[in-house]
Amino acid sequence: MTDSTNGGGLQLGASVPDFELATYDPTKNDFGTVSLDQNKKAGKWTILFFYPADFTFV
Q: Where are the domains of the chain?
Protein backbone atom coordinates (compact mmCIF):
# COMPACT_ATOMS: atom_id res chain seq x y z
CA MET A 1 0.00 0.00 0.00
CA THR A 2 1.56 3.27 -1.07
CA ASP A 3 0.11 6.72 -0.82
CA SER A 4 1.87 9.64 -2.48
CA THR A 5 0.44 12.12 0.05
CA ASN A 6 2.31 10.63 3.02
CA GLY A 7 5.23 8.82 1.41
CA GLY A 8 3.67 5.37 1.88
CA GLY A 9 3.66 5.50 5.68
CA LEU A 10 1.04 4.11 8.02
CA GLN A 11 -2.18 5.91 8.79
CA LEU A 12 -3.50 6.43 12.31
CA GLY A 13 -5.22 3.22 13.39
CA ALA A 14 -3.50 1.07 10.75
CA SER A 15 -1.87 -2.23 11.72
CA VAL A 16 1.91 -2.28 11.85
CA PRO A 17 3.53 -5.11 9.90
CA ASP A 18 5.45 -7.63 12.00
CA PHE A 19 9.14 -6.87 12.44
CA GLU A 20 12.12 -8.36 14.23
CA LEU A 21 15.04 -6.42 15.73
CA ALA A 22 18.44 -7.40 17.08
CA THR A 23 18.80 -6.43 20.75
CA TYR A 24 21.37 -6.38 23.51
CA ASP A 25 20.34 -7.26 27.08
CA PRO A 26 22.86 -5.79 29.55
CA THR A 27 21.44 -7.86 32.45
CA LYS A 28 22.26 -11.07 30.56
CA ASN A 29 25.32 -9.60 28.82
CA ASP A 30 24.05 -11.22 25.61
CA PHE A 31 22.48 -10.42 22.24
CA GLY A 32 19.04 -11.59 21.17
CA THR A 33 16.01 -10.63 19.10
CA VAL A 34 12.60 -9.18 19.75
CA SER A 35 9.62 -9.09 17.40
CA LEU A 36 6.26 -7.35 17.36
CA ASP A 37 4.50 -10.73 17.12
CA GLN A 38 6.41 -11.96 20.19
CA ASN A 39 5.34 -8.89 22.19
CA LYS A 40 1.70 -9.25 21.09
CA LYS A 41 1.59 -12.90 22.18
CA ALA A 42 3.10 -11.94 25.56
CA GLY A 43 0.46 -9.21 25.99
CA LYS A 44 3.10 -6.46 26.01
CA TRP A 45 2.59 -2.96 24.66
CA THR A 46 4.97 -1.73 21.98
CA ILE A 47 5.75 1.93 21.35
CA LEU A 48 7.30 2.85 18.02
CA PHE A 49 9.26 6.10 18.14
CA PHE A 50 10.60 7.66 14.97
CA TYR A 51 13.00 10.57 14.79
CA PRO A 52 14.05 12.64 11.79
CA ALA A 53 17.74 11.68 11.61
CA ASP A 54 20.64 10.53 13.72
CA PHE A 55 22.11 13.24 15.92
CA THR A 56 19.04 15.45 15.44
CA PHE A 57 18.02 17.16 18.65
CA VAL A 58 14.53 15.89 19.52
A: 18-53
